[in-house]
Amino acid sequence: MHFDIEEGKIWNCYNGTEDSVAERLVEMGVPTSDIILGFHSPFKRQFTRYAIG
Asked: How many whole angstroms separate alpha carbon 28 and alpha carbon 47?
């Protein structure tokens, strides 16, 4: 896993696990607007439930 925290947002840059780490963060109370799936292109991110970045 690789995460960066920039400007109050959690950038999920790499997840080599079977679990959806972003989903686990949401379960722990992190708003979806604070999570960015950095391993997707900005174009693809617009179709997820998470922030675009």
From this structure: 23
What is the model's pLDDT at position 53? 85
pTM as predicted: 0.86
Residues 37, 48 contacting (CB under 8 angstroms): yes
Q: Of 6, 17, 12, 2, which is closest to residue 36 (Cα–Cα)? A: 12
Please provide the DSSP assignment of 5-52 as one string: EETTEEEEEE--SSS-HHHHHHHTT--GGGEEETTS-HHHHTTSSSB-
Backbone φ and ψ for 41, nearest 5 degrees, come out as -70, 155
SS3 state of residue 3:
strand
